[in-house]
Input
Amino acid sequence: MWELVPRLLGDSRYLVLATADRQGRPWATPVFFAARDEDRLVWVSAPGSRHSRNIAERPDVAITVFDSHAPIGGAEALYLEATAGLADDPAAALTILNARLPASKELSGDDLAPSGPLLVYQADVRRHFILIRGGDPRFDNVTDARLRVTRPQERPPMDEPIHSIITSLDGHMNDNSGSAGPKEQA
Output
């Protein structure tokens, strides 16, 4: 099920970024983005925009990525819990963003503060969830639900002692970090 994560991040141009201000008042906004990988997303925004001000006060964010043109009953969605803030490498983030933009819309260092109006932000993803549509024959759910997914673990090398493999598998089963976790209602 993890394969949906990189596919949706690669196919989608916009995410919905949910933030909250100091008093907890929510705000959601669409943002053009690029994924460095499945665990870090980047975008540019004006520091005075409501979502940027909210991130400065409360860096915990929720993100949804989905295709708004999907037919009814055919939706796929990715839900992310993340911590957002200013990008730790704005130049690298700009390169990733520009790879997704048409040449006429590419950003330059002049677009960024202090000479320009924008700052580069990043979201470091802590948890990934996918939409499980109601009635999905693989699951026992009548209504839509979300399922936590994690990156598949690499197999240990064959020359690794069997004790290490068993310990690794036991920890994997006990910490619920397998490819799928418990379902939550969407």
About this structure: The chain is about 20% helix and 35% strand. Strands lie at 14-20, 26-32, 34-37, 40-45, 60-66, 77-86, 119-132, 145-149, 183-185. The helical segments are 4-11, 50-57, 90-98, 162-174.
